[in-house]
Design brief:
about 20% helix, 4-stranded antiparallel β-sheet, about 30% strand, about 260 residues, 5-stranded mixed β-sheet
Length: about 260
């Protein structure tokens, strides 16, 4: 596997001079004039808050076409990935760091704003019966797979749908991060919601294929709890225009909850 750093480093950015590329198009010193911008959206961006809990957002970057440099795309991805294991006190600081680094490297002021993944979600994901685990205000310190984190809530005969957008694991072939929305739809002994979120976050450095990860979660839950119905599903973000959406279930309908993009 390639080595991808999850520790913040602005040095990963590789600026490229626009003039060198435009010379190839014979645009330098020509009569052609234009305005515009390069708009980027990062659908797989995450960092840690001061309590160790992952935070996510979809940054929107606007780099003016008149800037001295553009940012080479692979270096941009590596730079954004370096935030994953780094602690920032709040979203505003993350925005400031992104704007500073990208403005410095592009040679022009770069505009950065945050969208919420839920803002981009289809209607089904906004179902009021869905319990969004991401809203739990908890400390998290374990980022290595640990099924012992799972605990029962103490309730019997529970029926609920638990959901998180914070899930991340690693590709076993490349070491690149894979992001997903994970849904646990069950009836039976209650799952401790905080424990489930901590357990799912513990996959953050776990390298396995997406299909096998869903099966691991499914069997871990079956071994720990008693259910009359269970469905575990994951909707992974696209790579190269292709996504994967595995689900494993018994006594349950296939999942209807999805994630965009």
């Amino acid at each position: 596997m390639e080595d991808y750093s999850d520790r913040y480093s602005a040095d990963l950015l590789q600026p490229m001079k626009r003039s060198e590329q435009r010379e190839k198009l014979s645009l330098i010193n020509s009569n052609y004039r234009f305005e515009g911008a390069d708009i980027w959206h990062a659908y797989e961006f995450t960092w840690l808050n001061t309590r160790g809990k992952p935070e996510i957002a979809v940054p929107r970057f606007e780099i003016e076409a008149g800037s001295q440099n553009f940012i080479e795309s692979k270096s941009f991805k590596l730079y954004l990935g370096s935030f994953a294991g780094s602690i920032f006190s709040d979203k505003e600081l993350v925005l400031e760091v992104l704007e500073k680094d990208l403005s410095l490297n592009s040679g022009s002021q770069v505009s950065v704003s945050f969208l919420s993944p839920m803002d981009l979600a289809p209607h089904e994901l906004k179902d009021p019966n869905l319990v969004e685990l991401d809203k739990l205000d908890i400390d998290i310190s374990e980022y290595n797979y640990d099924p012992q984190l799972l605990e029962a809530s103490g309730e019997e005969d529970v029926s609920e749908v638990l959901f998180t957008n914070l899930f991340r694991s690693l590709c076993p072939m490349t070491g690149q991060p894979d992001f997903a929305s994970v849904t646990v739809d069950y009836r039976g002994v209650g799952i401790g919601q905080e424990s489930l979120l901590r357990y799912l976050v513990s996959f953050r450095k776990y390298a396995a294929f997406s299909e096998h990860i869903v099966e691991r979660i499914y069997f871990d839950l079956l071994q720990k709890f008693s259910f009359t119905a269970l469905c575990v599903s994951a909707r992974y973000t696209r790579r190269g225009g292709l996504d994967i959406n595995p689900h494993r279930l018994f006594n349950s309908l296939p999942p209807k909850h999805t994630r965009d993009p």
